[in-house]
């Protein structure tokens, strides 16, 4: 299974290491650095087969989490474990960085000790681990320095629902669901949609007392082309009835992630029309943005990014809405439009550019960024939420947001 874990900074220096099956040699890190020397981080494979064994790595927050695997194992299991390590550190410390790991070295080491037993994942649920290892609050640090320890044994890991602490009590019982959808789209130079995919997540924030058993149902539960469920969800019940039945963890957690192919790409929320003309060592451009389908909601944080050719030196433009900037170092034109509704005038920007040499193209594509609150482009809607085995009626809140993922318009 997993033998060792090394956390490396951007220069390849080891920040922390943990060995579960005997002390491993640091030479594996040297070999990994030699194999990946000079490679952009996004080109480094997550799985590396070497004469010294198999390596599995992820890169997050400018840190490399590298594991050595001593036996045949499912690669996705190791990758999932590494991502859970990073997610747990974020849960404890709000962010992950070299300085945070060094400042909280003991806590990080304790977490790694509890998360795995002799190379096999053991406890990875934040609620269970927080019952064993207290988050580094000021009070907890004072208690630790004074030698004060908890007077009870952790009971989360002894339960058949290790993701939830026992004895949870709230004065006001409430639960919230955020449906967050990102739209990945490629539009060709003729305005036709080449690909269009929605990647969504349902994030819940539970503040419920006791051990509630919830059933969440959707108006249109069969729109998902692919999905992933939190371990608390009863998978077989979802397969058979298309409802989410679960005992929720306490606090915030990702209940579900899903993918939906947008089968009618004409329902894109915005339409971007670029017109580029090239002449000699320069040219001109006109870009317009129209609001198409947003269910009557305003499009917010609307921005257009135009990565231009490296030989372009100067850009002069005039937008009718918003402001623009041109970075001469990166050759990127950014037009910040802001908040736009369908009834507003169409945002447009016109301009000219000059280059140091003759141009064949001003750029290959334009990117759009936007956000639409209280709108799920997939059409996903919550039908009902039922609570069992508890006598209270909690406050329930649902909100949706649609964001641009990689929204690309080719020129």
UniProtKB/TrEMBL annotation:
GO biological processes: intracellular protein transport; vesicle-mediated transport
Coiled coil: none
Domain (MHD): residue spans on this chain: 172-410
GO cellular component terms, semicolon-separated: clathrin adaptor complex; endomembrane system
Keywords noted in UniProt: Membrane, Protein transport, Transport
Location relative to the cell: Endomembrane system
PROSITE patterns, per database record: CLAT_ADAPTOR_M_1, CLAT_ADAPTOR_M_2, MHD
Family, as annotated: Belongs to the adaptor complexes medium subunit family.
Official protein name in the record: AP-3 complex subunit MU-1
Native source organism of the sequence: Basidiobolus meristosporus CBS 931.73
